[in-house]
Write a structure and sequence with these properties.
With 922 residues, the chain is an alpha+beta fold. Among the domains are: 110 residues, Alpha-Beta Plaits (2-Layer Sandwich), CATH 3.30.70.1320; 365 residues, Multidrug efflux transporter AcrB transmembrane fold (Up-down Bundle); 119 residues, Multidrug efflux transporter AcrB pore domain (Alpha-Beta Plaits), CATH 3.30.70.1430. It is built from 28 helices and 28 strands. The strands form 8 sheets. Strands 1, 2, 9, 10, 11, 13, 14, 15 and 16 form a 9-stranded antiparallel beta sheet that branches. Strands 17, 18, 25, 26 and 27 form a 5-stranded antiparallel beta sheet that branches. Strands 8-3-21-20 form a 4-stranded mixed beta sheet.
C-alpha cells in the first residue's frame, strides 16, 4: 500500500487507488430480491435486508449484486448555458460552494465551550434545486432549478438483472474462517421465512443458490456410506476376532473423527467438502492402528494371558512402530500444509483434517483402546445358539486363514526370500508396465475433475462498446434456447415435474469466472444467463453437464460474439485449456493467436474456443488545431470542456447511508447519445468567445484498448477452451499441442513465446510446491523410521515399498473405469501411510526376533511374516470393506470422493502383497 501511495504520476482525474487485503471467504447462499417495482424501492428493500442479515450473530459478511450506485445528475443544455453565459464548470463550482459544511472552530464563553459550524450541505436532488447559481443583472437570483433538470437517480451505466422475468437484486452471504456454513444457512433461511411475510406487495424473496444444501446432501450421503462402511468393518472384524473386541477396535474410527471435529474451531477448520475428504483419507490409517493394537492384544489373550496383562504386553510390543508409523504419515501429509498457490487453502483443509485425525488415532489406539480391552470380562458365559453358530463360523474362517498362511503364504515367502532378485524384478516389471500405461495414455490423468453443482451458466462477451440493445437481443436468443432445453428435459420426465427451478439473467456485470472475463467485469457487452436445477436426486439422474451440452447444441450461432461459454462447474481453477502468448508485437501476437485457435478447433472434444485478442472500443481522438493554439486554446481546455459535457463535472460527493453519491453536472442524456452533439458543440476560448468545436479541434476515429494485458513487460493474448472430460483429457491435448504444433508456431512467429495458464498453471504451481515439500517430507520420514529401527539401511527398505503400493491404486482406477485425478493422489498419500505402518511393524518384529530370540535373518523374516499375516490381512479387508459403499455408489454428491476411495481401497489390497512378499524379500 505504501508503494502504491508513493506513485505521483497518476493522471489528475484518476480515482484514488484502493489497496485491500484479500479475504478468504466462501459463498454460503444467495437471496434474490425481485418484483414489479421501481429500482430505488427495490434497492431500499435490498439494503435494509443486508443490514438485518449482518445483525444476525451467525453472519459475518454480506454483499449485494446488481445494485447501481446512486447519483445526482444535473443536466443543462448548451443553449441554456449560452443564454446565461455560464459553463458547466461554473455551475458545478456554484453547487460546490453552496452545498458544504465548514467547521468554524469554537468560542470559549463563560458558560462553556461552544463549537461553531456553518451548515449548508445538500443531500438530495430536491435540496440542490434551490442553490443560487448566479445573480441576474436586475438583482434577481438564478436558481439551479431554473436552468437545469436535476435527476436524483442512478449512475449512468448499463446494468440490470432479471429473476424469472422480474427486476432483481441479489444478496450474497459468505462465511469467513471457521464460520459454520450450515448455521449461517439456517439463520438466513429462518430470517427469509419471517421477513417474507412483511414484504411489500409484489416483492419476493427466493433462495437462489444455497451451498449449504449441497453440503448437507453430501454430508448425508457420506454419513450413509460411512455407516454402511463401519457396519462392514465390524462384520469383517467379527469374522476374525471376538465380537466385543471387534466393536472396540471399530470404535477407534468414530473416536478419532469426532476428536478431530472437536478441534476444528480452534484450528480455523470447518465442516466442508474438503474436510470430508480429509476424514475419508484418515480412515485407512486409523483402522490400521486400531487393528494392529487390538489384534496383538487378542493374540496375547489366546496365548493365555489375562485381559489386563494382554493389553499391556500387546500394546507395548507394537507401541513404538505404531507411534512412529503415524508420525511418518503425518510427515507425508505436511507438504499439503505448505503449498503456496491458489490451491493452498484447499490443501490446508484436507491436510489439517488428516493430521488431527492421526493425532487422535495415536491417543485412541495407545491409551483408550487398551484401557477398554483390559477391563473386559473374560468369564465364559453360557453362549446362545446364535453365538455358538457365529463362533463356529469364526473357527472355520480362522482355520482356513491359518491353513492358507501355513500352506500357501509360507511357501511363497520362502520362495521370495530364496529368489529375492526375481521377486524384485517382477515388482519392477509391474511398475514399468504401469508407467508405460500412463505414458501411452491408457491411464489418463486429469489434475482437477469436473465438479458440478446445481447451476448451469451461459456467459456472453460481445465486442467492447457493443450497444445494450444488441446484447439484449443476444440474451433473448440464449433464453429461447434455454426454454427449448427445459421443454426437452422436462418432456422426458415421467412425473410431469420440472428439473428447473429459477432463471437469473444479467447484463452489464459478471458474477462468475469466465474464461476471458474476470468476476466483476462490467459493460454493456457482457451478460450471463443462469439456470437453477432441482437437486440431483429429484431430477432423475440427469447431470448438469448433460443439461449444458444440450443447451449449447440448441443455441444458434451468435454473430460478432467474442466469447460464448456454457458451464456447469461448481469449482473451477480456470479454463481447462488456457495458453498464453507473449511478445512485443501485438499484430504478430494476433496472427499467432489465430493460428493456435484454429489448431485447437481441429481437436474433438473441445468447445467454447476463443481468444482475448480484440480491437477494443471505438474512440474519437480530439486534438487542438494549430490555429486554435494561437488563440490560447490548450489541449487541457479542450479535453476538460468535452469531458464536462459528456462524462460530467463532478461537483461533489455526499455520503448517503453507505453510498458515496456523486453530483455530476453535464449535458442532458439525449445530447450525450449522439455524435452530432459533439460536432455542434461550442468550445469557449480563454477570452470567453465561443467557437464551433470542429473549427478548433480535429476528430480522428481510432480503436482504443479497453484493457492492456502484460506479463513481465510483454503484451499477452490468451487462447482458452473447455473440454468434454468424458471424451478427452485437457492434459493429453496440451501434451500433443506442445509436442506437435508449438515448435512450428514458434518458428513461424519468432518474437512470440507460449506458456500454459489457467488450470495448467495452477497445476504446475501446486505440483512444484508439493514436489519441493515432499523431498523434505521424505527426509523427515527417513529420520523418523531410522529412530525405531536403529538402522540407516532398513528405513530405505521400508520406503522402497511405497511406489510399489501405488500399482494397486492405478489398477483400481482401470478396474472401476475412472481417470486418475488429483484426489487419487491424495488417496495414494494415505496409502503410503498404510504401507509404511504395516512395513514398519513387520521390520520391527523381524528385528525383535533376531534380538530377543537369536534367530537368523531368514527364520526371523519368515516367523515375523507368519505372525503379521493376520493383522495385515485384516487391515486390507477392513479398509477395503469400509470404502466399498463409497466406491460402488453412483451418487452425484459423492462423485468427487470415489477416485480417492478407489486409490486407498484397491491400493491397500495390493499393498498386502507388497508388505507380506516384497518387504521380506528385500
Amino acid at each position: 500500500k505504501a508503494q502504491v501511495n508513493a506513485i505521483s504520476t497518476f493522471p489528475a482525474n484518476t480515482e484514488r487507488p484502493i489497496v485491500s487485503q484479500v479475504t478468504m471467504r466462501s459463498l454460503v447462499t444467495q437471496v434474490a430480491v425481485h418484483g414489479d417495482t421501481d429500482e430505488q424501492s427495490l434497492k431500499n428493500i435490498t439494503e435494509a435486508i443486508r443490514k438485518d442479515l449482518l445483525e444476525l450473530p451467525e453472519v459475518s459478511l454480506v454483499e449485494t449484486l446488481y445494485m447501481r450506485a446512486n447519483e445526482v445528475s444535473v443536466e443543462i443544455s448548451e443553449a441554456t448555458l449560452r443564454r446565461h453565459q455560464l459553463t458547466l464548470a461554473q455551475v458545478g463550482q456554484a453547487i460546490r460552494n453552496s452545498s458544504i459544511d465548514i467547521p468554524g472552530g469554537s468560542v470559549k464563553a463563560e458558560s462553556g465551550e461552544i463549537r461553531l459550524r456553518s451548515t449548508g450541505q445538500r443531500y438530495t436532488g430536491q435540496d440542490l434545486e434551490n442553490i443560487v447559481v448566479a445573480r441576474e443583472p436586475g438583482g434577481g437570483r438564478l436558481l439551479l432549478r431554473d436552468i437545469a433538470t436535476v435527476r436524483d437517480g442512478f449512475e449512468d451505466v448499463d446494468q440490470y438483472a432479471e429473476f424469472n422475468g422480474e427486476q432483481a437484486m441479489m444478496i450474497q452471504i459468505f462465511r469467513i474462517g471457521s464460520d459454520d456454513a450450515i448455521e449461517i444457512s439456517e439463520a438466513v433461511l429462518a430470517y427469509v421465512a419471517q421477513k417474507e411475510r412483511a414484504l411489500p406487495e409484489g416483492i419476493h424473496f427466493t433462495i437462489w443458490n444455497n451451498e449449504a444444501d449441497e453440503l448437507i446432501g453430501r454430508l448425508g450421503t457420506m454419513m450413509n456410506n460411512a455407516l454402511s462402511g463401519l457396519l462392514l468393518v465390524i462384520i469383517s472384524l467379527s469374522l476374525f476376532l471376538k465380537v466385543r473386541l471387534a466393536l472396540w477396535v471399530s470404535a477407534g474410527i468414530p473416536v478419532a473423527i469426532f476428536g478431530a471435529l472437536a478441534f476444528f474451531p480452534s484450528t480455523d477448520l470447518s465442516i466442508s467438502t474438503l474436510s470430508l475428504m480429509g476424514l475419508l483419507l484418515s480412515l485407512g490409517v486409523v483402522v490400521d492402528d486400531a487393528i494392529v493394537v487390538g489384534e496383538r492384544i487378542y493374540t496375547k489373550e489366546q496365548e493365555g494371558f489375562d485381559a489386563r496383562t494382554a493389553a499391556i504386553m500387546g500394546t507395548s510390543e507394537v507401541a513404538v512402530p505404531v507411534f512412529f508409523g503415524v508420525l511418518t504419515t503425518i510427515a507425508a501429509f505436511m507438504p499439503l500444509l505448505s503449498v503456496d498457490s491458489n490451491l493452498g487453502q484447499f490443501f490446508i483443509s484436507i491436510g489439517g483434517t488428516v493430521v488431527l485425525c492421526l493425532i487422535f488415532s495415536i491417543v485412541e489406539s495407545q491409551l483408550i483402546l487398551p484401557s477398554h480391552l483390559a477391563h473386559r470380562s473374560q468369564t465364559k458365559a453360557t453362549k446362545s445358539r446364535l453365538a455358538r453358530r457365529w463362533g463356529a463360523i469364526q473357527d472355520r474362517i480362522a482355520g482356513s486363514l491359518g491353513h492358507f498362511a501355513s500352506h500357501r503364504y509360507k511357501p511363497w515367502i520362502e520362495w521370495a526370500i530364496d529368489h529375492r532378485y526375481t521377486t524384485l524384478s517382477i515388482a519392477l516389471a509391474m511398475m514399468i508396465v504401469m508407467g508405460g500405461m500412463m505414458a501411452s495414455g491408457r491411464v489418463v490423468f486429469q489434475f482437477f475433475p469436473s465438479v458440478s453443482g446445481n447451476n448451469v451458466v451461459a456467459r456472453v462477451v460481445m465486442p467492447e462498446g457493443y450497444p445494450l440493445a444488441g446484447t439484449q437481443a443476444v440474451v433473448e436468443k440464449i433464453q429461447a434456447s434455454a426454454v427449448e432445453t427445459r421443454r426437452i428435459v422436462d418432456g422426458n420426465r415421467s412425473d410431469g415435474s420440472s428439473a428447473f427451478k429459477n432463471e437469473l439473467s444479467s447484463i452489464g456485470v459478471t458474477i462468475t469466472q469466465g474464461a476471458l472475463v474476470m468476476i466483476g467485469a462490467t459493460g454493456s457487452h457482457v451478460a450471463e444467463i443462469s439456470l437453477n436445477l432441482v437437486p440431483y436426486r429429484d431430477r432423475g439422474g440427469m447431470t448438469p453437464q448433460e443439461v449444458v451440452n444440450l443447451w449449447r447444441d440448441l443455441t444458434p450461432p451468435i454473430p460478432d460474439v467474442v466469447e460464448l461459454s456454457f458451464s456447469a462447474d461448481a469449482v473451477s481453477l480456470g479454463a481447462d485449456i488456457d495458453l498464453e502468448l507473449r511478445g512485443r508485437d501485438i499484430e504478430q501476437l494476433g496472427r499467432a493467436a489465430a493460428s493456435l485457435t484454429n489448431t485447437l478447433e481441429s481437436y474433438g472434444g473441445l468447445y467454447d474456443i476463443s481468444n482475448s485478442y480484440r480491437s477494443g472500443k471505438r474512440e474519437l481522438a480530439l486534438k487542438v488545431r494549430p490555429e486554435a493554439e494561437s488563440l490560447g486554446l490548450t489541449q487541457a481546455d479542450l479535453g476538460n470542456q468535452v469531458r464536462n459535457a459528456f462524462y460530467g463535472f463532478e461537483a461533489q460527493r455526499v455520503q448517503r447511508g453507505r453510498d458515496d453519491v456523486r453530483v455530476m453536472v453535464r449535458f442532458p442524456e439525449d445530447d450525450r447519445r449522439s455524435l452530432a452533439s459533439l460536432e455542434s458543440m461550442s468550445i469557449r476560448l480563454p477570452d470567453g468567445i465561443e467557437v464551433p468545436a470542429l473549427s478548433v479541434a480535429t476528430l480522428v476515429p481510432t480503436m482504443g484498448n479497453s484493457t492492456i494485458n502484460r506479463t513481465d513487460g510483454q503484451r499477452t493474448i490468451n487462447i482458452v477452451a473447455s473440454a468434454d472430460r468424458n471424451r478427452v483429457a485437457p492434459e493429453t491435448i496440451l501434451l500433443q499441442v506442445f509436442k506437435t504444433h508449438v515448435p512450428k508456431l514458434l518458428e513461424d512467429y519468432p518474437g512470440v513465446s507460449i506458456y500454459q495458464a489457467g488450470e495448467a498453471e495452477e497445476r504446475a504451481r501446486a505440483l512444484s510446491g508439493l514436489v519441493s515439500a515432499s523431498l523434505v517430507a521424505l527426509m523427515v520420514i527417513y529420520a523418523l523410521l531410522a529412530i525405531p529401527l536403529k538402522s540407516y539401511l532398513q528405513p530405505l527398505v521400508v520406503m522402497a515399498s511405497i511406489p510399489f503400493g501405488f500399482i494397486g491404486a492405478i489398477l483400481g482406477h482401470q478396474i472401476m473405469n475412472y481417470d486418475l485425478v488429483f484426489f487419487s493422489l491424495l488417496g495414494m498419500i494415505a496409502l503410503a501411510g498404510v504401507v509404511i505402518n504395516s512395513s514398519l511393524v513387520l521390520v520391527d518384529f523381524i528385528n525383535r526376533n533376531r534380538r530377543l530370540h537369536g534367530m537368523n535373518v531368514r527364520d526371523a523374516v519368515i516367523d515375523s511374516g507368519m505372525s503379521r499375516f493376520r493383522p495385515i490381512f485384516l487391515t486390507s479387508v477392513t479398509t477395503f470393506m469400509g470404502l466399498l459403499p463409497l466406491m460402488v455408489t453412483r451418487d452425484f454428491d459423492t462423485a468427487p470422493f470415489v477416485p480417492l476411495a478407489v486409490s486407498l481401497g484397491f491400493g491397500v489390497v495390493f499393498a498386502t502383497a507388497v508388505t507380506l512378499i516384497l518387504i521380506p524379500a528385500l
